[in-house]
Design goal:
Blueprint: H1 2-12, E1 18-22, H2 28-38, E2 46-50, H3 56-64, H4 81-84, E3 89-93, H5 100-112, E4 114-115, E5 124-125, E6 129-134, H6 138-143, H7 149-155, E7 158-162, H8 172-182, E8 190-191, H9 193-200, H10 207-221, E9 226-227, H11 244-247, H12 261-279, H13 284-291, H14 295-305
Length: 310
Amino acid sequence: MRGVRDLVAQVASSEASVLVVGETGTGKELVARSIHDLSERAAGPFVPVNCGAIPAELLESELFGHEKGAFTGAIATRQGRFEMAAGGTLFLDEIGDMPLDMQVKLLRVLQERTFERVGSTTMLKADVRIIAATHQNLEALVEAQKFRMDLFYRLDVFPIRTPPLRDRTADIGPLIDHQLRQLPESDGLILTEGAKKRLEQYAWPGNVRELMNLVERLTILHPGQEIDVQQLPEKYRFGAETDVSRSGGDLSGLPVEGVDLKDHIARMEIQLIQEALDREKGVVAKAAALLGLQRTTLVEKMKKLGIQRD
């Protein structure tokens, strides 16, 4: 994350387009806002638009605006996000979900720095800085002909990757403390070091957003209390009834309410790897042999799952 902050500081003073890439919940919009706040456009507006949340038939009007009578339902002239962001920054979130026909129109605006409202012939200046974000692999989408190569290179002037939480588990403790300071109802609530260590072993598919939601949930469930491992929700503590150690490795006991299979398998992997490391006093090669894995395979799994040997 220090590397991310350094990149933000370096690119903020320029007008270069930025492409922020990372999994859902890793803080891509926070990165975009930081770039805006440190730029010469900080006094202007920061206007976000989620390209995947707006129906394809409405996206052109949403971005460029429309004139009264341009289409059925256009009862008044309306500004688009490009006009709203004039003098500031336009943040195009989930750009990978943008339809191909809109990609063509966006590329033209980025090249010519002008656009027209739907139903108008008047050219308007696009005085905006573009920051785009996606959780998808745009290069793979280009290969699959689902994303335009020329638009990709126009956006990918300065890429920034936001790392997933499982790759930076040392941040979990400070992030929890930060979130507790932000919540007025968290007075007196603390997490023990044991609880924080257990959370470092979780795979965090929802990343920082999931962690923030967990902290808020704990402040509601246990106001003003000390939270140890046993107070954590079941999916975050590995001593639950679904653990391999309690089930004897029997995977046939599917709960009535169902199970998140990916998460369940990740938790079992974490537990077994941790047990193997503990048994072999942290020697990865010996732990790998116990698990029937190559040492390099185990190292990669440990990185992916955020497991650190003592």
